[in-house]
Structure formats: structure tokens, C-alpha cells
Amino acid sequence: MKFVTKAVLSFATAVLAFQATPAMAWGAVASYDGRIVYWAVNEKTADAAKEAAVEGCKKFYGKTCDWVSKPVTATALVVSKPIRSQGIYFSADPNPQVAAENALRMCRVDHSECGIISAAWDSGPTWWAQADGKNYNYIYLNADTEDEAKNEALDGCENGVEEKGSCKVSDFGSGSGWAATAEKDNQFWRGYGATKAEATKDAMKNCGDTACKVTGSGENKGSVPEPAGMKKVREMQRQSIAKWKKMGNWIE
Question: Which of 63, 119, 134, 208 lies 20 to 30 Å from 244, alpha-carbon distance?
Fold first, then answer.
């Protein structure tokens, strides 16, 4: 039995000029014969995550993997396995302990004793995009992919702009930040900043009138940091591997 891991190094509002930051987003798990487990996380797209998991597993084992999970993003990926036989049970949840419990629960439907063989965290991130049209702009926050953010920003802009077809994506990215909207007489001025206060200040500045009021704000979360619960799940994995080693069923 072998566990292989792969770490890849790799709201309507206006925004100031912002460079798009290269970032990743998706994770997936591949397996061969219920024994070899290979995961890829922080890949740019769902398809890229599946491909990286399958190709990585194939490269390691020399054969095409016979199972691959559904791609997931900004979540814990946990795989359980029966202690004394073969089989793979996969679960994903933003709460690592819930993911582990679900993976073990599925395994215990068929087997009396199960353990955690694989645990990883995919950090996201979430994307934002700005679209500008004639006398109107729109930003979409917390999209799972770059394309989703751009498309939603364009749709939002086109829904509000007077001259249809004038909207274009002017900026996008995956870093954390805030957007805010200032309003006066049914007109909107939008602002962006690293913090809520900066976004509010920028929106009011763009409005240019003290009579303007900030009517909304939102945060693009960017990468989701690994939660503390991953530590407990990795300890569960360590204990499971210790059992397999004691039985002589673990290959270093």
C-alpha cells in the first residue's frame, strides 16, 4: 500500500486598476486498484485537477488509474480505506473533520474497520472581475473560476448599462479585497480596496459628494487558509498508517 501526495507550487462595484494574480483553485484524487492514492490540489481548473491527479498517479505507478474523484475547490479532500482489504471512499467538505467522518462512514457500510489513507486541503481561491460599460460598471465577487467571474461581471454590467454591448472586462483577479457602492439620487459610484474602509473611501471619492451614502459592500475572500481541523485529520491518517505498517501492508 502506498500513499503519494502532490503539492502544486504553482456585488456591483468599481475597482481601481488591479493586475490579475496567477492563482490555482481545484483539487481531485485518483486511485489505482484501491491501493495507490494520488491527489492534486490548487490546480487552475476542475479539468486540470482531474488531469493532474490521473497523470500523477499513472506516472508514479506506471499504469492508468481506474478511479478519479469529482473535482472540488476550497475544501478538505479525505480518502478512507478498509484496514484489512482494498477500496477507496472519498469525501470533501470545508470542515476537514466532517469530510473525514463522512469518508469513514461510507467505508464502514462495507467494512468493519477503516482508516484515513489520504487528507489534503485545497485553498481555493475565489475570483473577482470588473466590467465597464458606458456610464456603468459592475464587479462580481467570490466566483470559483476566472471565467465565471468574468462572465458574471459582464452580465451584471449589461443588465444595468444604457448602451447595450458597451461592457468589457477591465480587470480581474483572485486576491482578497473589498468592494463598496456609494449612492445618490439612484446613481451609483463604486470603489475597491484591500480593506472595507479603503473600498468605502474610494467609493465616496468617486461619488465626489458628501451627500452620497455607502449602500453596500462585499469581500472577495481570495485563497481560503487551511483550517485548524486539518491537523486532527492528519493525525487520524498517521494513526491509520501506523496500523498498516504494523500489519506489514504499507510500502514506503
Answer: 63
Q: What is the DSSP letter of 88?
A: -
Domain extent listing, the chain: 2-10+23-124+225-247, 127-220
Per residue of the chain (252 residues), give pLDDT as tens.
Answer: 223 322 221 133 222 222 233 345 799 999 988 878 898 998 888 999 999 999 999 988 888 888 999 999 889 999 999 999 989 999 999 999 999 999 999 999 999 999 999 999 998 888 888 888 887 878 898 888 889 999 999 999 999 888 999 999 988 888 888 989 989 888 887 787 889 999 899 889 878 888 999 999 999 888 888 999 999 999 999 999 999 999 887 765
Give the contacts of 172 (CB within 8 A, at least 6 positions apart). Answer: 18, 20, 127, 128, 129, 130, 146, 149, 150, 153
- Residue 178, φ and ψ in degrees, nearest 5: -125, 150
Cell numbers for 182: 456609494
3-class SS of residue 87 = coil
The answer to whether the CB of 232 falls within 8 A of the CB of 97 is yes
Q: Which amino acid is at 104?
A: L
106: left (phi over 0), alpha (psi -120 to 50) or beta: alpha
Can you tell me the distance from the alpha carbon of 94 to that of 241, in angstroms, rounded to the nearest whole number?
24
